[in-house]
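Lecture 7 notes: from sequence to structure.

We start with a single chain of 125 residues. Read the sequence below before looking at the structure.
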Amino acid sequence: MTYPSLLLAALLTVAVGLLHSWLGERLLIGPLLAAPSADGPLQRRFLRRVLRNAWHITSFAWAGMGLALASLAFAPLDMQGRRVAMIIGAVFVGHGLFVFAMSRGRHVGWPFFLAIGGLALWAAM
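Now the structure, written as tokens:
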């Protein structure tokens, strides 16, 4: 049995992760770390590396959740599979609501997070 909604959620999750890394590095992290700062914490090499790695590890985690959703998409959903889909769905709905609230709707990611979460929750029902 195949769950198209889980497969679509998986593809969106991996795509969002890739875009997050690429656009974030290009438009936010790269320029932020390239900007000169007097004596701020970003002057320390270790903290600069932590900031960059934390940004990209988020994308890596999303890719992992996308792969988990893809694996669920191609098997019958038992109780445990439904639970995993519900957890991932709830996490992404939470992402979407948080990003929407914090950016006042200006961040482009919140509709994608809500779509991923909704698709995963729909498949789990």
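The longest helix spans residues 4-34. Keep this in mind for problem set 3.
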